[in-house]
Amino acid sequence: MDFSAQPQINWNTKVQPLVRPAIPEIPTSVPEKTLAAKVQDASCHPWGLVDYHLYLAFIERGRDDLKRQSEVMLLEADRLRQVHVADLLDVNTFAHSPTETHIIAFLNLPMLPLTTSMQLTEQKLVLGFGLQHQHLLGYFFESAPDNLAEVYSVWHEGEVVIDIHIDRFLEMYEYTVKEAMEILGVGMFHHFRESKRELPAGMDLVVTIQFAQFLRDIANLLWEDRSTEFREVYFKHEDHLRTLMSRASRQSWFAVRDGLTIQQYRQKMMGKMQNFTLYDLLFDWPTEPTAVSSPQDKMSSSKLFDVSTLSRILKPNGRVMQGQACQVFFTLIYFVAMIYQ
Predict the structure, then answer these.
(1) What 3-state class would DSSP assign to 141?
(2) 8 Å CB contact between 259 and 317
(3) Cα–Cα dist 141/152, whole Å
(4) Mean per-residue pLDDT for 241-261?
(5) Inter-helix orientation angle 166-179/227-257, to 10°
(6) Binning pLDDT at 50, 70 and 90, where does residue 145 land?
(7) What is the pLDDT of residues 4-14, one digit of tens each?
(8) Which contacts (CB < 8 Å, 24+ apart) does range 138-145 have?
(9) What is the Cα–Cα distance from 149 to 46, expressed in whole angstroms?
(10) What is the mean pLDDT of residues 242-269?
(11) What pLDDT, on the 0 to 100 scale, is given for residue 305?
(12) DSSP state of 59
């Protein structure tokens, strides 16, 4: 037998695979992330906590003067209707407004948990304004849609946690910026007991800045001939607070680059009052609940979040679990920092 010749292939045999590979199903659509998830991805810090400077930057993305003034929502009998700030000068705008206060809503803020390892919620803080009595308003919702116009569907479930006249707000604002910046370490609304819920200090400052910005947007409506003067004065205050938040964020990112844990950074900052304030603006560090002296006290000791859980979440080395988005963002910050050193 000649083994040097190539054997013929038996093409008559039908060969079937022993195990058919499973064909993965291709999803027809990818569910869109919630507003809270998007904000958390954009504002998470490598320590697993919220960087409120990045939070502020995200919620203001694309919201210039013209966009803000054209997207205020007027509360009517059956909806929140989008109007322009200029329309508020026309009495006919309020033909279908159900109350004499003429309430408008202008911003829907997602409330984030203390750390990225905690479960996200649908909690929202909607900022508004009562035109009739000139009160700044904050409505807290345990669960609300991401779209501000759709919040009307749960409007009756909202809890008014901030209700303050603009004169009182400006009095607090002016004093804090000019005389007592350390107040920002606990939050302006919390310090002056003008909120029924204790917001994290950084979130408190976000709300303060957004209220101040809104008053600049409607200055013509409120002060007419003094509107230009008002904008110039309070823009400087607002810009100063934004710079403060930016500095707090930058210092903490460089601390991570230098290998500091969250406890080491806190210890380092405690000896410097100004920097300690900056630290508290960035995070909501666990504190004892505020004592309430009597049932008549306006400030409630309840918090939006249980800060006592933070100590259980921290690992022994002081770091916390962090998402992939945090790691990628920190890597980018690290290389930028190395370039500019």
Answers:
(1) strand
(2) no
(3) 11
(4) 89
(5) 50
(6) very high
(7) 677 777 777 77
(8) 138/162, 138/163, 138/195, 138/207, 139/105, 140/111, 140/197, 140/304, 144/108
(9) 34
(10) 86
(11) 34
(12) H
Q: How much is the average pLDDT of 227-234?
A: 78
- Amino acid identity for residue 38 in this structure: K
Cβ atoms 177, 165 nearer than 8 A: no
User: Who's near 162: CB < 8 A, 6+ residues apart?
Assistant: 136, 137, 138, 189, 194, 195, 196, 207
Q: Name the domain count of the chain.
A: 1
The DSSP output letter for 48 is: S
Q: Which domain holds residue 259?
A: 50-340
Residue (of 139, 164, 167) closest to 154 by Cα position: 139
Task: Please state the pTM of the whole predicted model.
Answer: 0.73
Cα 150 from Cα 147, distance rounded (Å): 5
Query: Are 189 and 199 a contacting pair, CB within 8 Å?
Result: yes
Query: Is 264 inside any structural domain?
Result: yes
Domain-located, residue 42: no
pLDDT of 196 strictly over 50: yes
Cα-trace Rg, the chain: 26
| Residue showing tokens 């008559």 | 12
Under 8 Å between Cβ of 80 and 111: no
CB 108 within 8 A of CB 126: yes
For residue 280, the model assigns a pLDDT of: 56
Question: How many other C-beta atoms are found inside a 10 Å radius of the C-beta of residue 7?
Answer: 6
Task: Give the C-alpha separation, 98 to 104, whole Å.
Answer: 12
Q: Is residue 322 part of a domain?
A: yes
Indicate the length of the chain as a whole number: 341
Nearest in space to 70 (alpha carbons), one of 59, 83, 79, 81: 83
Please report whether residue 195 resides in a domain: yes
The arithmetic mean of pLDDT across residues 69-91, rounded, is 84
d(CA 274, CA 204): 18
